[in-house]
Amino acid sequence: MENQPTIEQEIAQLEQQIAEKRAALGHGEVAPESPHEKETLREIIGEKIQQQIPQYQPSPTKPQPSSTRPQQDDGQVGLDDSALSYVLPELKEKVQALINMVFNKGLDDGVKEAVRSNNPALIDAFHDVLVDELYNMLVERKKLEKLT
Predict the structure, then answer these.
(1) Do 125 and 2 touch, CB atoms closer than 8 A?
(2) For residue 124, what are the contacts with CB-CB under 8 A and spacing of at least 6?
(3) Residue 41 domain flag
C-alpha cells in the first residue's frame, strides 16, 4: 500500500506553498492578511487539478462565503448550505462526497476522483468548494487571516 500523506501533512504543504508564493510576490510574512491569500490557495489547488487535466482552466472565483460544520461522528466533514450555495443542486451530493474523500483519503484521491467524472461543472464546483474549505481551515488555524 502507498504511503499517502495525511490531510494534516497536505495542509502543512499548502501552508508552505502559500508562504513560498507570498515570498515570491514580495509579500513576505509581513502581510498575512493580504487579500490575495485565498486566490493563492485557489491557484495551488488549480495546479493540482491541472496535473491530472492539463487543459483545466478554473472559472472565476465565486464571491459567496462558506463555512463548515465540525467533522461528524462518521468521519464526514459537514458543509452547511452556504458552502454549497453556489453549486448546482444536482452536483451538491457529488461535491460533498469528493470533499469527504479529500478529508478522509487525501487531496490527490479527491482530485483524481473528480477528474474521473469527466464533468467540467463538477470539477469546477469541487475546486471552488475545496478552496473555501481549506481556506477556512487555514483561517481557523491562524495561518491566514479571514478576508473581511
Answers:
(1) no
(2) 58, 59
(3) yes
